[in-house]
Amino acid sequence: MTPEELKQLVRTVPDFPKPGILFRDITTLIGDGPGLAATVEHLAIRARAAGAEAIAGMEARGFIFGAAVAAQLGIGFVPVRKPGKLPVPVLAIDYALEYGTDTLEVDPTAIGAGQRVVMIDDLIATGGTALAAAQLLRRAGATVSHALFVIDLPDLGGAERLREAELVVDALMAFPGH
To answer: Which positions are annotated as active-site residues?
Structure first.
């Protein structure tokens, strides 16, 4: 399936989580076996081309695509978690949200010094989570140069923020608006 065909599998839910928002729901994409397989294949091709030695995925939907890509490539998966989910000493980073802050954590022993890690997530909007994840992974010793997404919402500027942080950004599809 082409990225354009995959785009047809993404459900748009108006006014969620608040009025005026068009929520891009991947539930319908991951529920379609051929669509999910094709999405993983497209991401794996890009991750392989980027020289990935490991894949990092952000909780929670980045786990779906990231772990599948890592398995397909035969390389490790590094979960970037919400606070309090890892049972070992962690590296953590706080980052700004539209209304407040959040935290991401990673097990630093999951990353080798200089290991080429490609980040994967389902969607890039404002880029705050992905930017924080890249900073955290770099602090853990990873070389992070690529971030892959299923969906880009270019009007929100997240991909551009990541490019300013010296990341190559690629998405399978883009939707205008937010």
So the answer is: 61, 98
